[in-house]
Amino acid sequence: MNDMTSQEQTQQPTAKLPSSARVVVIGGGAVGASVLYHLAELGWTDCVLLEKNELTSGSTWHAAGNCPNYVGSWTIMKMQSYSTSLYRKLGELVDYPMNYHVTGAIRLAHSRQRMEEFRHVERMGRQMGVEFVEMSNKEMQDIHPFLETHDLYGGQWDPLDGDIDPAQLTQALAKGARDKGQKIIRFCPVTAVRRENGEWVLTTPAGEIRCEYVVNAAGYRAAELGRMFGRNVPCVSLEHQYIITEAIPELTARDTKVPLLRDPDSSYYLRQEKDGLLLGPYEKNCRAHWTDASDPMPEDFSFQLYNDDLERLEWYIEDACARVPILGTAGITRVVNGPIPYAPDGLPLIGQMPGVPNAFEACVFTFGIVQAGGAGKLLSEIIVEGESETDSWAVDPRRFTDHVDEVYTRAKAIETYSHEYAMHFPQIQWPAGRKAKTSPLYDRLASAGAEFGSYGGWERADWFPRNDADRRPADSYDRQHWFEDVGAECRHVAEHVGMIELTGFSRFRLKGAGAADWLRSKVTGGLPKVGRIGLVYFASPKGKILSEMTATRFGDDDILLMTGAGAYWHDRDLLHFALPADSGITITDVTAEMATLLVTGPKAPALLAAVAGASMSHADFPWLSHRKLTIGGAEVTAIRVSFAGEAGWELHCAMADVTAVYDAIVAEGKAHQLGHFGMLALDSMRLEKGYRSWKSDLTSDYTMLESGLERWVNFDKPEFIGRTSLLTEQQAGAKREFVTLTLDDPEDGEAFGEAVYLSTVMVDGVSAGLVVSAGYGHRVGKSIAMAVLDKEAVAKGGALSVDVLGRKRAAKIVEGGVLYDPDNSRMKV
Ligand SMILES: Cc1cc2nc3c(=O)[nH]c(=O)nc-3n(C[C@H](O)[C@H](O)[C@H](O)COP(=O)(O)OP(=O)(O)OC[C@H]3O[C@@H](n4cnc5c(N)ncnc54)[C@H](O)[C@@H]3O)c2cc1C
């Protein structure tokens, strides 16, 4: 290891430790400083930041400082564009001038599909006021004269991209925070934490400090700090390198810096640094550190780097020299190889520390310089106001649940790093970290031909290829290679009967005197009667959607709450944090104990009647009711409901019994033309029914009313969270509305349904909202999009269109929002 500055950890804390603070932020990199600054901006000025060494001594000091707006995620683009606009004025705001070169950036496209991805992001940016401009090869050369373009398809211009000095940025945020009264104590590591009388007590060499809230902003040391809270933070440190060249005469001769270049297809960034160039690749064979006992994380790695490893970058250097030939004319003067923290999906952790009260995370940032500003704002809103302006699920630490251990994190992180610039096609499933959770049916489904996908770590059948040559992940924004097979699965369900395993639902059993009343006071609507099931919604104080759960009522005060596999820790916190300790109500997590099959289609009643020896007619077993059945000798809770929109039952049984239940249904199924279907078919069918999905259609970007969920809001109830805001909104009229759209499809099969997610909806060419989920409805033969639109824009009655990867598709609103069997008669046979 290189020791760049030989900082010794013999330094004393730089100030006296106060005995208490409202919030203690642990870690003084760009992110911790930004959290402290934004807490002050929201009026909380009695907070303290504790830093183990000097400010910036983690990953921040050596970052390249690039600050793009471009990114494929709505949440992250909001964060990054907030950061870049803050950084442009921060120096003036806090009186701390900094080097921030807004050079603009060119992103190169080697193919039509890459350009379509750029167009998609361009339209998304437009929705939030972020401008990107498509460019021809000639236009790119006009602003970057050293660029070789003969083999390119074109590119995209981000006028507000650039590079900032990360240390100056951190110091500016720290100054802004201090000026408002916040305290920063350097050389003051947190060495232990404990919870006492509803407060956190943090131990440091300078003594103890008590606080109401605590934030882990410890960068690549986040896992070490997390362990003090009993939390396993999914974080691995990877090597990331960039090289800097000596001065290049052609650059010295210019008055202005050349714009930053990103070549995602070759996987690197290249920008001017002083009069030389700085090249940073995301290489295929990257290296992880500090993942096992043979390579322990040093006690102190402040201001240090890994040894150079230029061999790994050879291919990228050669490629970049061909792209910008002046690069090859200069020698390398400096190599920076530093620890870059990665979570399994490469996105940071910002928000509630899973399961730990009043503890938050703002760590594991891969792009922590450009994201620091937005992250500080987001987390401060969550802490101070209890919710953020923008939905933050993409970065919520609870998106990773119990299957995410060190081995999984390492495998996924390496995969994500090497795909940092890859095209993320809709429904793509990468291969690393798979089979984290499998049910006893896995082998049977594999034998039946399933291609699997991962859902909250659970392996579920995605589809059943009829031709082995088609067994490959999504590889296009165009119509996917599984289109016909998934269509066949949907048609089979509609004509006969299909079965899918849905194991992995998160399940919480609520019991005890007063359980129903307690739940009723938390959700926006009513509860189902005993023997019935119903959807319940949790709203935020601002009336935004927090969660959707299916409530199955077994007794007056005995309710099973089921939610999606991915919602596991989010919903566990939602319930546990809300329940008073002395309530006498219990919440039991039965997630791992239960398995689920969905059997659905017009022949489902006959099949299940035969296999269970019970009448499954609608008169005896109505829609949205539940009964105990015996199938294959095992007890099953059958719930008459089907996300596919056909007659159907979810069969919930003990995990140990699921093979017996499955085998009995398969054996009897031969007489009823039972077929398998997968998650892709289920998604297609639920779109046709207008059924919404948590965190794609139902997010906290929108209120209950904007999402068309007024049926589940009962204003007659005297109290529930969000009531006041929702009532005000109802009286004024919601500004946005949730709609289902059908789209005119192209003849060429390009750019089909799935690709329109997060696309812009336009009325007479003017942006009017955003597509929240989309796909192709095989039973109705149409591309379908769900969108949230500006009511006023729609009311004008102009021509609707959706911009799919830059191509305009005419769109129509579906009256009532349901395309398939709108009166639900098929479900009630
Ligand atoms: C070579 C390289 C180039 C990069 N280029 C870019 C780029 O161009 N753009 C970009 O956006 N990002 C870039 N990054 C990523 C960026 O450096 C990080 O995402 C960012 O610095 C993370 O900031 P942070 O505040 O979260 O963590 P850090 O900067 O690591 O800060 C965490 C702090 O916590 C302190 N700490 C740890 N444990 C304790 C404890 N127990 N008590 C008290 N304090 C503690 C540490 O001492 C450290 O100072 C690059 C990274 C590398 C390696």
Helix and strand topology:
Layout lengths: L1 E2 L16 E7 L3 H12 L6 E3 L23 H21 L5 E2 L3 E5 L2 H16 L5 E3 L1 H7 L10 E5 L4 E2 L1 H14 L3 E3 L6 E5 L2 E6 L2 E10 L5 H7 L7 E10 L3 H4 L7 E4 L4 E6 L2 E6 L6 E2 L14 E2 L8 H10 L8 E11 L6 E4 L6 E5 L4 H18 L20 H13 L23 H6 L3 E5 L2 E6 L19 H13 L1 E5 L4 E6 L3 H8 L10 E7 L5 E11 L2 E6 L4 H11 L7 E4 L4 E7 L3 H9 L13 E6 L2 E7 L7 E7 L3 H12 L4 E3 L2 H11 L33 H10 L3 E8 L16 E4 L2 E12 L4 E9 H5 L4 E5 L2 E7 L16
Parallel strand pairs: 2-3, 2-12, 3-9, 5-14, 12-21, 24-34
Antiparallel strand pairs: 1-18, 4-8, 5-7, 6-7, 10-11, 11-12, 13-16, 13-17, 13-19, 14-15, 15-16, 20-21, 22-23, 24-30, 25-28, 25-29, 26-27, 27-28, 30-33, 31-32, 32-33, 35-38, 35-40, 36-37, 36-39, 37-38, 39-40
Helix pairs in contact: 1-5, 1-9, 2-5, 2-9, 12-17, 15-16
The structure holds flavin-adenine dinucleotide.
The site of flavin-adenine dinucleotide has 42 residues, from helix 1, strand 13, strand 19 and helix 9.
Distance between the termini: 70 Å
Structural class: alpha+beta
The biggest sheet, with number of strands, parallel, antiparallel or mixed sense and barrel status, is: 9 strands, mixed
Helicity, as a percent range: 10-25%
How would the global form be characterised?
Answer: globular
The residue ranges in which pLDDT falls below 50 over 5 or more consecutive positions are 1-9
The overall average pLDDT, rounded, is 95
- Tell me how many strands there are: 40
Number of separate helices: 19
Which strand-content bin applies to the residues?
Answer: 25-35%
Bound molecules: flavin-adenine dinucleotide
Q: What Rg is obtained from the alpha carbons, in whole angstroms?
A: 28 Å
